[in-house]
Write the structure tokens for this entry.
Amino acid sequence: MTQQSDAQNQTLSNLMHEERRFDPPADLAAQANLTATAYDEAAADRLGFWAKQAERLSWATRWDEVLDWSNPPFAQWFVGGKLNAAYNCVDRHVEAGAGDKVAFHWVGEPEGETRDITYAQLKDEVCQAANALVELGVKTGDRVAIYMPMIPETVVTMLACARIGAPHTVVFGGFSADALASRIEDCDAQVVVTADGGYRRGAASALKPAVDEARTKNSVVRKVLVVRRTGQEVAWDDSVDVWWHDLVAKQSTEHACEFFDAEHPLYVMYTSGTTGKPKGILHTTAGYLVGAAYTHWGVFDLKPETDVYWCTADIGWVTGHSYMVYGPLANQTTSVMYEGTPDSPHQGRWWEIIEQYKVTIFYTAPTAIRTFMKWGDEIPAKYDMSSLRILGSVGEPINPEAYVWYRETIGGSRTPVVDTWWQTETGAIMISPLPGVTSAKPGSAMTPVPGVVADVVDDDGNSVPDGSGGYLVLKEPWPSMLRTLWGDDERFKETYWSRWPGMYFAGDGAKKDEDGDIWVLGRVDDVMNVSGHRLSTTEIESALVSHPKVAEAAVVGATDETTGQAVVAYVILRSAAGDGGPDIVKELRDHVAKEIGAIAKPRQIMIVAELPKTRSGKIMRRLLRDVAENRTVGDVTTLADSTVMDLIKEGAATSTED
Ligand code: WTA
């Protein structure tokens, strides 16, 4: 565990000593969806347990075999089964008489702009969009890229793609044109659905220009379907661009859906890995939907008749896919969907929405919680949030202070908090307490959900005893597991399955406490977690090095009070660039934003003369992290030239953050 931050380890072990525990409230326990017997049931017959969870979906043809694991790590789940994901998320609820039920209470960022969408309306719009995509020439199996704000059309487009069997790849609206272009190219997405822009932080931001620019970088895109959201001016190319309101609105609200094979690709979601090139995580239809629906129902103890659920994630991330779209809709949930940022037009906006819609289940990220803590308790105190009954956290380790604040200040000390560990790759929650069944400890994701087999192992792949740390692994396949990396089976095997035979290596370090409960500590590879977003150190280094003034760059994730980790870059300039000029730091930060997106901008850039390297030439990131976190620099004996660190420390002391 040498790569892991020592400070992080130390803090966690201190916290584990002064551990607190919250037991499930009696009223929740009395009517919990899952009961304690689910753990035994799943342990006794894991595949039988998953087959039972698959019953919550509607199948056109039932499966013959629950799991085919004859060619690991390539899994096939529910072999022989046929179904349609959009039918499961929408049509079947309308057929069951729930057409008038609200699927989404959509809230735009500009105040007063809201829209309630019923399941019947959603069905009509999904059918229209499916017909429109067909008219644009999209066929089953073709990929469609989605680059959209948080508006109902985004969900409609995803479901329309699922309906016609065209895997979607949603690219987060904060990514740059370059990042969008590389994703479009990697999965050969010939049709892009976008909007003129969306509202964020009190203003209209643009999206279409990035699509236009991405189109100049390759010739993959044939058609761009554009939603008018803000009314801002957009450049227009009649041979490519089509307005949503022209094409979709005129389509029939009927579309007879086809039923696809259980393993038909549902979507590709790009995420950062340890190398520069993002990985296209492939999820397929049945297993993914079973995983998302089961965990959404079990982990949030969802009562579809009475709950109002709100997940604040952006649809551009996996949490938005599994817990805003597929899981909740498969379970016939009424959800809130909010377009903008939490501080617009005021810092109580989220709590106001909870009060207004009487939200009962709320799912967000630790970075948001820490931000609200900073803004002050008096803000949430102004709102009536007594409707809340369950709170969830996802995306990064939640520090116990933030957990307790969340439970007390937002949850009025009544609501259990479920700290849910999972990844883009796992498709659904893997480790979490069950709010009506298990107790919870602030800072611990506790135990794998029934059906999932997780463990913490040492370097040799042996399970560590309680009270020790190691690497987090999953020891049995699960239905919503990624099937491969788009177009790269070898990288799939190498990244996740090569370290210990038969085990999925998640890339996270973890500890088991004395009770055997799991505490996830964070990444042990070169992936950073900034505000719950995964960023690769290598990807940012490549972006920096592509700047003409840069000779070499090293990037580390340093602990940050609000964002969990922050990007800190050390840069050596080319000699021809001199000192880089007065704006060099800004220039480099903007360059990273252009190459990847604003989320990847380094918090701090230090211009240095040399980087600490081992005798074999490997950059010693551990030392750079020590400097970035203002710690005493660790062991430098393996350093080729140990005076380098003194120079870097001096540089760090004089560098400015902006
Ligand atoms: C981290 C987000 C600790 C972890 C769903 C993982 C967490 C990565 C937690 C996946 C949690 C997510 N506690 N760490 N509850 N949830 N992580 O793919 O490092 O964007 O590997 O999926 O986030 O990030 P991803």
The domain at 531-657 is CATH 3.30.300.30 (GMP Synthetase; Chain A, domain 3). The mean pLDDT is 93. The pocket of WTA is lined by residues 271, 317-319, 394-397, 419-424, 445, 506-508, 520, 522-523, 529, 534 (CB under 6 Å). The chain is about 35% helix and 25% strand.
